[in-house]
Amino acid sequence: MLILGIDGALARPSVAVVEDGRVSLSKVGVSAATMSRDALRMIAEALHELSISIKEIDVITVTSGPGSFTGIRAGMATALGLADATGARVTTVGALEALAMSAPPVDGQITAVSRARKAVVYIAVYEMVGGVPKLVRGPLETHAANLVETCEYPLRLIGEGFEEELDNIRKGSGGAVEVLQETVPTAAAAAMLAHGRWEQGEPFDNHPMAPEYVGRAQADVARGEPGTI
């Protein structure tokens, strides 16, 4: 089975091809803001390097968020357009789940983090079971500085949006913080998660093509209305 993964939720978008449970190729873009322009180019380059036709792709999986509003919608539009043209099946994977899947092997819980806006992040806590993330808590929205109060120790972080507060987070936790990895390309992890679901017999249409929103809409933020932080 050939799976095309697309991620536009994080600061740097990515695409990847997974064949029979192995990552064949991964490409990383420059910015989520350019996802609508760069997605098809990156996909075309990846397929060309692998000598694969887009019509050979069986499944297209795309991250549903939370993360970049523009990147998520551009990724989904790309996935739906390609699926309509080729007949490939489409499915979604949460961006934080894909981030957790990208983490190096660890014991215990890890916290996946994506950027919401300045000083605010989306987080979800996972327990790795057999190399697959199992959700413990979240997704939720919080201030990056509040990660110390929000999560259990030791705090193991992967993702983005917490960098500017990292010194304060370390001080607040007494140093019990480990950054497993900062921003990583997650399209490959999303495709691997989709492959794992398929192996377990889970229908791809169990995960509809809809953005995942957490916390307040940007319009509410702009109006200064109270939220859920």
Relevant terms:
229 residues, Nucleotidyltransferase, domain 5, five-stranded mixed sheet, alpha/beta
Reported for the largest beta sheet, the result is: 5 strands, mixed
CATH topology of the largest domain: the name is Nucleotidyltransferase, domain 5
Strands, total number: 10
Order of helices and strands: EEEHEHEHEEEHEHEHH
- Runs in which pLDDT lies below 50 for 5 or more consecutive residues are 217-229
CATH superfamily of the largest domain: ATPase, nucleotide binding domain
The level-1 CATH class of the largest domain: Alpha Beta
| Large-scale geometry | globular
The share of residues in extended strands comes to: 25-35%
The value of Rg in angstroms is 17 Å
Average of per-residue pLDDT values? 86
Q: State the strand order across the main sheet.
A: 3-2-1-4-5
Which architecture of the largest domain per CATH? 2-Layer Sandwich
Structural class: alpha/beta
Helix content: 25-40%
Count of DSSP helices?
7
Number of domain modules: 2
| Euclidean distance between termini CA atoms | 41 Å
